[in-house]
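TL;DR need structure tokens for one chain.
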Amino acid sequence: MKKILLLLIISFSLLGLYARTEFDISVFADTLKYNWNNAEERYQYRENLAFKKGLIDSYEAERLSTTLNLGKSAILPGWGHFDTNNVLRGQILLSTEIILAGTSFFLYDKSVEKYDKYKASKQIDEINQYYSDANRLYKQSQLTMGLFAAIWVFNIYDTYVSTNQYNEWLWIRNMQKELDRRINISPNGINIRF
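>> reply
TL;DR here they are.
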């Protein structure tokens, strides 16, 4: 049985060698298949393809990752804006977050201090005054921390928008740079535009 199977495999493989015809280059290189009517159209298509490939390569090399930029802004507010050349907006967000965090911690520290005085006091007037001061400072601390969180969320959203705008601008800039090139060197020769 094995010999018969081996004989069949060998005979079919040899049959394939004898059945082979000559390779017809004209069928393979049929330009009408790609809607090219002549060699000039094929050359223009090749140049257009090289132009698009160059654009995509330069864009991919320079574009910013949205995920990475969001991570940067989550760690340090404004960092993602610095990467997208929105330096002023990044500075404003960073300084606002620093001020709000500092104010919140300062108010919380003061409220803890007033609360400790409230617990240590013995007179009813001092107890009421220290408690109301501690409560007021604690609420202000929580309010500034809530504002800090709201601006932090806005910072991440704005980084997403800013990164997408930067990437769109980058694509347009790269395309314009390629179109404005006066001298183009390619394997097919040197082209000079006036």
